Amino acid sequence: MDLYIQRDSNHLLSLSFSLPSRRTYILSLSTYIFQMQASVSSLSISYLNSTFRSNIRFCGLRLEAPGFQSDAQLNKYQRIRIVPRKSILPKRLVSVSASTSDNGSPTKSFDYDLVIIGAGVGGHGAALHAVEKGLKTAIVEGDVVGGTCVNRGCVPSKALLAVSGRMRELQDEHHMKALGLQVAAAGYDRQAVADHANNLASKIRNNLTNSMKALGVDILTGFGTILGPQKIKYGKVGFPDNVITAKDIIIATGSVPFVPKGIEVDGKTVITSDHALKLEVVPDWVAIVGSGYIGLEFSDVYTALGSEVTFIEALDQLMPGFDPEIGKLAQRVLINPRKIDYHTGVFATKITPAEDGKPVIIELTDAKTKEPKDTLEVDAALIATGRAPFTKGLGLENINVETQRGFVPVDERMRVIDANGNLVPHLYCIGDANGKMMLAHAASAQGISVVEQVTGRDHVLNHLSIPAACFTHPEISMVGLTEVNSKSFYVIM
Ligand SMILES: Cc1cc2nc3c(=O)[nH]c(=O)nc-3n(C[C@H](O)[C@H](O)[C@H](O)COP(=O)(O)OP(=O)(O)OC[C@H]3O[C@@H](n4cnc5c(N)ncnc54)[C@H](O)[C@@H]3O)c2cc1C
């Protein structure tokens, strides 16, 4: 099949190609994104029919969502021919019906064929695929369209990282000299950088909303609650509820920052990623609690903008979620040469925000002995200790579903499992809310997989073929099992 992309200098891009045969191609290319000002997260192409180019996704979003012009622009892009081995070429390509601007007609006796609760990237991906398949589709959103990724996640963070990458380049005298460039001290305007990230998020949010409206998805505003099988209510606080029925329902309610007990978030000096992305301040010294990909990306931004960073990590090594080999290399490149120090094997058991001229105070406790270990005084603390599913108030008790640490239990087809271990008919959960793989493009792929199933084509998503990336400078990308995981995987088998 053919793929069109634009090539630039040093940027690594992961591409994944899902074929109906459920095999996936992964390419790593020295490539940059189309016209975005932020680094691209991943680009996946669903080869469902010959018009696959319209399925190009950014962070799980459709090509149209970030404002890309598909066909006309694509001619300018480099063309790559990917020839699948004959044995894995699908015999019969699944056809996708043309988009219906009238949003189909619902199956008899239901208001909709499909209702999705939550208009993040997971819900958006599912909605667009559903109308392409001719389903009468509605999406219920309690806040703003775009969810975490567009408003408080991938998009603004990648916009800030695009700035940090350029700052690093401009600050690299040796590199500039080698290019024959003379650059005076690089500086930045904090508010303008913050505005850039915010404007990009709102542009993509509008594009996302418009793409759904254009295809005829009904966007229903209000918090959604499941009342019983195939029935939900939604509504705004202070207004009467609306009750609707649907043949199938997808829960796509996403996640929120997880803040451990003992940590007091004031949104100014003790913050989560939600606050940090607004870049209201660039603290001189910031402690980042948690060294996963979110903490690592923020360390890249903060150090490029002049902050000193201290990581606090509960496990014995930094970046515990990464393959140890990658972790070691990343430490050499991303931590050691920068103004970053760290405490590992400790919990931040108490964090008190700055007040009355006093700094933020962080009490560290030894993770093994549980004895107090140290106290830090810093200008700000960013809590990057993971994400918690947002499933409260969804009415899961009305259908006998019990969450597991807040996550909705699902099988490999994203079908919801009830408290007795039985599948709940016509109910699915995708994205961060099921906890299988908390990434934007995974949420979107799960949504598409569910739509395939409800329209009569069995489909199981292979999560091992979904790539993940950390958009530091340089970037880290990975796919499949780590060495450690693969050992336990094969022992279990
Ligand atoms: C700082 C940061 C950077 C990230 N960077 C990347 C990245 O580079 N690449 C990547 O792949 N992923 C990244 N992620 C992760 C990514 O944002 C999430 O995996 C993704 O947004 C999950 O999508 P979702 O559709 O499951 O949920 P969400 O995007 O969280 O959307 C859920 C939506 O449901 C709505 N909702 C919730 N409950 C209800 C209800 N009862 N009724 C109605 N509406 C409801 C919410 O308001 C929200 O709009 C990042 C996350 C963060 C925090």
Automatic annotation (TrEMBL):
Q: Which UniProt keywords apply?
A: Disulfide bond, FAD, Flavoprotein, NAD, Oxidoreductase, Redox-active center, Transit peptide
**Keyword hit for Transit peptide:** yes
SUPFAM superfamilies listed in its UniProt record: FAD/NAD(P)-binding domain
Under catalytic activity, the entry for this protein gives:
N(6)-[(R)-dihydrolipoyl]-L-lysyl-[protein] + NAD(+) = N(6)-[(R)-lipoyl]-L-lysyl-[protein] + NADH + H(+)
List the PROSITE patterns hit by this protein, alphabetically: PYRIDINE_REDOX_1
Chain ranges of the FAD/NAD(P)-binding domain: 112-447
List the Gene3D superfamilies hit by this protein, alphabetically: FAD/NAD(P)-binding domain (3.50.50.60)
The biological processes this protein is annotated with in GO are: 2-oxoglutarate metabolic process
At the top of the EC hierarchy, this enzyme's class is oxidoreductase
Q: Which InterPro entries match?
A: Class-I_Pyr_Nuc-Dis_Oxidored (IPR050151), FAD/NAD-bd_sf (IPR036188), FAD/NAD-binding_dom (IPR023753), Pyr_OxRdtase_I_AS (IPR012999)
Protein origin, superkingdom: Eukaryota
Tell me which cofactor or cofactors this protein depends on.
FAD
Q: Which GO terms describe its molecular function?
A: dihydrolipoyl dehydrogenase (NADH) activity; flavin adenine dinucleotide binding
| UniProt record similarity statement | Belongs to the class-I pyridine nucleotide-disulfide oxidoreductase family.
What is the recorded name of this protein?
A: dihydrolipoyl dehydrogenase
Q: Organism classification, top ranks?
A: Eukaryota, Viridiplantae, Streptophyta, Embryophyta, Tracheophyta
